[in-house]
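[Solved] Which block belongs to which protein?

Original post:
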Amino acid sequence: MKTLMLGNEAVARGLFEAGCAFVSSYPGTPSTEITEAAAVYKEIYAEWAPNEKVALESAFGASLSGRRSFCGMKHVGLNVAADPLFTIAYTGVNAGLVIAVADDPGMHSSQNEQDSRHYARASKIPMLEPADSAEAIAFTKEAYEISEKFDTPVLLKMCTRVAHSQSVVEPGERTEVAKAYAKDAAKYIMMPGNAKRRHPIVEARTEALIAFAETTPLNTVENGADNSIGIITSSTSYQYVKEVFGDTYPIMKLGMIWPMPEKKIIDFAHSVRTLVVVEELDSFIEAHVNSLGISCIGKSKFSCIGEFSQNVIREQMQDLVITGKKIDADIPARPPVMCAGCPHRGLFYTLVRNKVTVMGDIGCYTLGAVPPLGALDTTICMGASVSGLHGFNKASALEGSVVDEKRKTVAVIGDSTFMHSGITGLVNIAYNDSNSTVIIVDNSITGMTGHQQNPTTGMNLKGDPAAKIDLETLCRAVGIRRVRVVDPYDLAACDAAVKEELAANEPSVIISRRPCALLKYVKHNKPLSVDSDKCRSCKMCMKIGCPAISMVGGKAKIDNTLCTGCGVCAQLCKFDAFQKGDH
C-alpha cells in the first residue's frame, strides 16, 4: 500500500526490506532519523555508538560475522569514521555493509558545507544518491546487492532536503540474509604485506564498477522535446530541474554518483548542443565530465556555496533557455535560539560576566555564541574545545607570548560530545599537566539532534536500561583531581565555581548539571511574572537572551506560555521585579 515517508524513514525501510540485521550510528542532523526509524523494526538490532568511528567499526564487525549491517552519520561524522573507511575499502565485506552519510548544503545545522562525494572517490568506494523517498528505499536495497556483488562497503549519500522531505513510497517485504564467516587472514588482516596484495583488487573493482555504472538503471536518461540543452544532475538538484523545466530538455540523472559512467556521459553529451551540469556544492560531476574531454557549463553559473532552489536554477539558466517555471514562496526566517529555561544560559552568563575566553564545541550550547550572550570564542569540531583549550593555555604560558594574563580561558563541552571525543582531550590535559578548566554542560541527553540517549543517560536507543557512565568518576580516573558539580540555575554557585577553578593551579573539571528543559520528565516551576511597578527598565534581564522575556511599553514582560520558572532572570534583577507565579 502506498504511503508518505520521510527520506530518512525510507532508508530505514530499505534496511528492513534488504534484510539488514545490525545498525550502529551516532546521531547527527540530517541523518539521525534513519537509525531511530530502523530501531522500530524488531528484526533489526539498532544502537547509538559513542562516535562514528566506533559505529563504523562495529558495523564492519557485524558484516564480517555474516549479517547485513548499516552505519549512519552526517557529513562531518564521516571525517571521524574515515580511518576505518579507507581500510575496509581494502578488506571488502562478508555480508553487505552500507554507510549512509547526510550532507547539509546551506549549513542548516552544521559547521561546514563539506561535500561527501569526495570521500567516495578518495576511498575508492561506490556511492549511491537517491533523489526522493521511493529511491531511498530502492537504492538502499540495491546498495546491499552492490556491496556483496563487488565485495565493498557502499556509501549512500543523503542530504537535508531528501532526508527531511516526504514523498510517496510503496513498502515491500523483508528478505533475510545470513552468510557464514570463514577466517581469511590475507583479506582481513591489513598488515603491509596483505594490504599490498589487496590494493590491485580495489583498482580492479573500480574498473568493474565503472562498467556497471554504464548499464545500471540507477543512472537514467530522460528525453526532452528540445535538444539544444542537456542537463546532467542528481539528488535534489534533479528535483529542482524537473520542477523548473519539466520535460523540455533531456536530463541525465546520476543515481550512482561514484564511480560515474564514461561512455554513457559521452553519448549524452553528443546528443545535445549545450551540456549543463547542475550540482550542489563542489564541481564533482563537472570535473568528471571535463576529464572525459567534454566541455560543459557548471560552476561558472552555479555557485559552490549554499543550497539550490528552483528559482536559483531558473535565474542562472535564463540566458540559455526560453522557458522555465518560477516558484513564488516567502518563507519567514527562524533564527536558532536557546530555549526558555535552557540550563546552559546561566552558565554562559556567568562566563561572560567573568570575562572568560570560551572554547566552544558542537551541540545546542553552541547557541551561546549568539547575542546577547556572545559567550563563545571558537567552535571547530566534536571535542576540539578540550584539546584546543590545552594548546591555547600551554602556548600562552610560553615565553614571548602576548596574552592578557587577567583573562582566563575554559572549554565548554556537552555530555554526549564529551563521550564522543572529549575524553581523549581531557586525558591529554591530565597527562601533560595542563592548567586548564573544562566545563561539561550535562543536560542529561543529546540535545541538538532531538533527544537521543548517550552513554551518560543510563538508557540505550530503545529506551531500555543501560550502563551509565559516571562523569565525575571518569574525570578522576583519567587524572583530574579537582572535579565539582554545579546547578547552572544557581548563578552564585556557578560564579563561585568558575572563579575558584580558574584560580587553582592544576587541571580541573566543572560539571554544570541540569536536565534539558524540553525533556518530558522534567517538571517545571510555575511561570514567573513581572511587577511593573518595581521594574526600572534597566534591561538587565534581557542580557541572558531568554525568549520568554521581552520589553513591552518600556517594562519587562514574561510570556507565561514559554516561561519554565527557572528563576535565572529573578537573580539578575536588583529591584525584585520578578515574582514567583501564582497561576
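(Second protein starts here: sequence line, then its C-alpha cells.)
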Amino acid sequence: MCVNKNMVEGKVEMKMTCDSLCNRHFWEERGITLPSYDVEAVYKKTKQAPGWVHFGIGNIFRIFIGGIVDGMLEQGILDSGLTCMEAFDFDIVDKIYHPFDNLALSVILKDDGTKEKKILGCFAEAVKAKPSETVSWSRMKEIFAAESLQIVSFTITEKGYALRDSQGEFLKYVKADMENGPDQATGVMGIVTAMLNERYQRGGYPLALVSMDNCSHNGDLLRASVIEMAETWQKKGFVDEGLVDYVKDSNRVAFPWTMIDKITPRPSDEIAKELEVSGIEDMQPVVTGKRTYIAPFINAEKPQYLVIEDSFPNGRPALEKGYGVYMADRETVNKAERMKVTACLNPVHSALGPIGVVLGIDGFADLLDDPVMMKMGKQIAYGESIPVIENPKIIRPIDFTDELFQNRFINKYLGDTNIRLCQEESQGVGVRFGVTINAYVSRYGTASSLVAIPLGLAGWLRYLMAIDDNGNNYELAPDPLADTLHEMLSGIAWGEPSSLTDQLRPILSNKNIFFTDLYEAGLGERIEEFFREMIAGPGSCKNTVYKYINTI
C-alpha cells in the first residue's frame, strides 16, 4: 500500500522506503529511476534461498556490487538479491539500512556534470554479524548453512584480513577470537571461519569466498587467514579436523582472486542538499562512531572494472553479464590487479593524495590542475610503474591509464578528496609501491632510478606529521597505524630539517609495511633527503615536489 506524500510548508516530501516506491510519479519527476523488478519479491526470495552474502556493506559495495546485482535483476538474469552482513560498524545497519527498508539511492556522477539517479532494491537483508545479538547470530548460521549459498564476498579493506600487527604479533581481538572460539568471534576472519564451521557441520556444501578489496592476491590473503583461524581452533579443540580439510579443499571452498576498480568518494553534502531540496527526506550523510562516512545515497563515477577468477564450486550467476565484470583465469586477474593496484591508479592516489592534504587542497581533481602534480602522477604510472607490469590483455594498461588521466582523475563533479585517499594508507603502501620497487630490484638490482615513487612515499610520511605546508595542524584520516607512525615522527620539528636524524629508519626498513626494506632497495636515503627538504618551512613540501619533478 502506498504511503501518502507529506506536505511541509507547501512542499511535497517523501522518505525512501519500499512503500514509497509505488508513488512512481514522485520519483520520476525528480529524475530518479525506480526498480522495474518486484523489490518485495526479491527480498522474499533472497531470505528463503540466500545465494550471495557480502561483508563490509559500505559505499563501494552498495554502488558497485549492488549496482551490478540491480542490473542483473533488471535483465531477469537474477531473481534474488544480496544478503548484507556487517561485522565492524553496526551503525551502518541501524542508520542507513533499516530506516530505509534497505533501499539505496545510486548517484552516478558523469564528467560532463550530469547525474544518473536510481533506487537500488537488491539489498534484501541487513544482518549484524555480532555473536552477542543471538537472533542475528542464529540467522547468520541459517544463511551459511543454506545449500543455495554460492558466494560470500568482501569489501572490508586490507586491514580486515590481517591477523597480525606491523610487528608480526597477533592483533588483540584476533588473539581473543582464537582463545574464545567460534561462538564468541568478533573479528571478520573469526566470524567467517565460525560460519564456515556451521556450513561444514550442516552439510559441507561448496562455497566461493571472494575478496573484492585492493589487496595483491586477495583471495590467498583471505584463504590464509581463514585457514589459520580454523587450524588454531582445531588445535584448541573448538572445531573438528574436518573443518580444516574443508576450507583447504578448493573443490569445496574456493578463494578466487579479483581486481576491483570504481572511484567512490565520501557522500557529497551538496548532493544531500540537492536531494532534500527536491523533497526527499533524511538524505544527510552521517559519520558513525567508527568514523564511517555514509548516507542513504551513494555517489561515484560511472566507469567500473571487476575482474574475477572463475572459480565457484557451488555454481554462480552469469556475472559476466554484469556491467564492468570480466570473468578470467587466475593469471589474467593477477595481471589486471597489478596493473590497477600497483601501477596505474592506486599508486597515483596514494602518492598525490597525502601531498594534496599537506598543500591544503581538498579535491584530488583540483590538485591535478597543477601541471607539476599532474606530471608527477603521470610519471608514477606511465614512467615508473607500467614498464614493470605485464599486459592483462582484457584491459590494455595504456588505455586504462589514459582513461584515468583524461577522464576519471580530473572529474571534478566526482568530488573525490585528498583526505579520503589517505584512509588506511599504511595498509596499502606495500602493495601499491612495494611490488613495483621489488620488481626494479629483481630486474636491476636496485630501485635507485625511481624519483616520483620515493617522492610520494616521502610525501606520505610528511602528511603523517599532521602539519600543513603553512605550519597549521590538521586531523589525520582513519588508519590503524596513524597514531603509531605519527608518534614515531614526533621528534621531528617542522621548520627544523636538522631535527631529522634516524626517526624514519624503523619505518622505511619495515617489511611488514612496505614488503621490502627500502634502504636495501636503494631508496631509504633518498626518501630521507626528500622528507628533510619537505619540512624546511612554509611552502617547502610544494617546492620539493616542484624541484624534483621538474628535473624529469
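Accepted answer:
You had them paired correctly. Confirming on the second one: The longest strand covers residues 104-109.
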